[in-house]
User: Fold this.
Amino acid sequence: MAENIKKIGCALISVFYKDGIDEIASELSKRGAKLLSTGGTYDYLTSKGFKVDKVEDLTSYPSILGGRVKTLHPKVFGGILGRRDNEGDREQMARYEIPEIDLVIVDLYPFEEYVAKGASHEDIIEKIDIGGISLIRAAAKNYKDVVIVPSKECYGKLLNVLRANDGGTTEAERYSFAKHALLTSSHYDTQIFKYLNSDGEIPAFTENVIESLPLRYGENPHQNAAYYGSADSLPTQIHGKEISYNNMLDIEAAIELISDFDSTALAIIKHNNACGCAQRPTVLEAWKDALAGDPVSAFGGIIVTNAAIDAEVAEEINKIFFEVIIAPSYSDEALEILKSKKNRIILVRAGVQPSAVKFRSMMAGVLVQERDTVAETPADLTPVTDKKATDAEIADLLFANRLVKHSKSNSIVLAKGGMLLASGVGQTSRVDALRQAIAKAQSFGFDLSGAVMASDAFFPFPDCVEIAGEAGITAVIHPGGSIRDGESVDYCNAHNIAMVTTGKRHFKH
Assistant:
């Protein structure tokens, strides 16, 4: 685009938040620009000593309908939309005494903030901006002649442009502001629709996310990546290198898993699956037993816990290399120890909860589903065998079931005494997943006698319970629902194995 610098002769300013607007008004006024404004913005600027004309004086109409109609007038929108290089537009603007408006600054009513704070429906509806949105679209459409500033986040950018160009803007700069403006209006309308359609009556995928965080790289170093969303939705990073795409996936997997535990627990995540996990009275005990589950895979993993990290725990976990640690809090001494590795990512999870829905790109579209929030309790278990699980086995079955829910399908989890002994994940057959888990447990010297087995889906054949029984498993949990469930139950009855079903499958792909 050509460096078509246009001086700003007239600026319309109508904003909700006034902070910072006086600095812009000062830059415009000292360069001879005329200021137009309405309502509270007019009062604010005149109280600061600026000479400002009222929009009402231009339109010969007062603000009406309780402030709902202020700027919606041909003399305002004609001044914005009039094409300076179009002879017909210039002739009409002259005939109807429509002044050229070269800059529009708006800051929309805080609709999202009112929704977030739980305001009444009536108050939220009143915060649907009409005039501001219309001004944004009009000024953005006519970017060749008009610059649009759609929110307070753009004030600094405008100031820099005004100072660099002595009160003018280039076409490229106006085009850039127009893109920001239409993104702002698109996001605003999306939030209004999502609020009004919270009952889901109209099926539509309407996510519009403005905030973004550049990531170190994607799944592989040659791929670019970014996170789109509010930084408030992420754990707070207090130390370490820039987070990568793979880190993000592991962080989400870690938070989703630990969110299912009420008592003190610690897990080690590798490639979105738990390679170690334990429930214990203290974090230190949980760490030692989680690590024992697979000390090989723990190298370079993600550590997550739902309890505070003190110096004693930090000393122990500092003995191995890991990329990320997530905890609700850390003692000062613990942080000093953990920060000894400059690249180690230390995150504080304080109130961060997974979203209610999950999105996934698919071909040229998007898959959307509710998040799997089911966390079974003893009341959800249906005994289906002659032998009933003991209280200790029920505790282990529920523990294993939490883990298998958060493991890649097909998955099998073996556990005992509130500790993950081994898992088989991401296998094309359930038998392969089980054999993988058994081999792994045995390679680390675990005795599977008295252990329990959890499966993310039903057993289509009795082969899995047969293999598990031969390995020493004494209790099994799975969703149930296979037409051949009876064969698995019969084997368990014949070999004194307890089995419970949940009625809930937990596939994860």
Observations:
- Residues 10 and 365 are 44 Å apart (CA to CA).
- The two ends are 47 Å apart (CA to CA).
- The first helix runs from residue 21 to 29.
- The chain has a mean pLDDT of 92.
